[in-house]
Amino acid sequence: MHSSPALHNAMWPGLVGKGPGSEPPIDLETMLRLTVAAQVDGVRFDGVDLFLSLPHTDIDSSDDDLARLAENISGKGLRAGSLVAPVWGATGGGSAMGDEAERGRFLTQIKKACRIGRKLRDLGVRKYGVIRIDSAASPAEWAKDPAAGTKRIADTFREACSIAEGFGERLAMEGEICWAGMHSWRHNVELLEMVARPQTLGFQADMAHTMLFTMGYNAPEDRLLPENFDWSNRDEFAAAYRRMAGALRPWTIDFHVAQNDGTVHGTGSHDKTGRHCQPLDPNGKLDIVRDAGAWMRDDAGNVTRAFQHICWDGCMFPNSVMLDPQTWNDVLRLMIAVRNAHGWN
What we know:
Layout: E1 6-10, H1 28-37, E2 47-51, H2 63-75, E3 79-84, H3 100-122, E4 131-133, H4 139-142, H5 146-166, E5 171-174, H6 185-195, E6 201-206, H7 207-215, H8 234-248, E7 252-257, E8 259-265, E9 273-277, H9 288-296, E10 309-312, H10 319-322, H11 325-342
Parallel strand pairs: 1-2, 1-10, 2-3, 3-4, 4-5, 5-6, 6-7, 7-10
Antiparallel strand pairs: 8-9
Helix pairs in contact: 3-5, 5-6, 6-8, 7-8, 9-11
């Protein structure tokens, strides 16, 4: 059994897609308790990745608030890793493609998130991880003027990089079909190259979200699988997935293990994106352990050691699923299998 990378659980599934029009949020303490309780053959989760938004972690937390948070996490035998900056309008941010006021709110949230990241490092509970961002704008809005939209997002992201560098942080942009300029594998590469700050800005790969890139959702010109693809053709899918991952892997600095059933889904205020499903879901299209290797090994098959931790993402699971302890034992068992296949000591 390998001991690296560390295994983390995401806390934001307790919030994303919850609230008005959906199920109530699951509080951070409950998510932490469920994470701590999971155990497979004596192995437990090493830590958690956090969403910096209420009702979990206030982006305007005081130093005392953060000290209590660090004590709570470390007291449970966990550590903090990557942090999600609340850059969207509904959480106090604004579009990275918007006017100066919106861009200003976006950058303010980046600064606040980086300050929290540094404080948690100073408190000793966080030794690795990134600040996760996206463009906080829709592909439909971007499609009105793609060239101008990508340029404006890149300009905003460069300013965000300068802020992050001042705090000793790195940023990772999460490509999803629901984010402007980040809704296909090719557009993500173009944006990263345009920002051209590889030491500060990288890519966050979620296995479920990136799978949708191969299918051409919101970017049919970039699809790698034919329409009405026969999912029984596992080798053809694996080749397309490796091609997509190969384009983004050199930029990838944060990694989410997840499953996807090949459909899109959105709840609450969250726009439609790749549908996460449970690791053992019979409709899941990913061979999770095999396909994780597309991100964790290079083209020659060598383990990259690019991540100090990997994280499970189960956004928009029903509350009944998330409150079931067996869910997290199943997730942990799969995470261990991924680490044993592609990790190191």
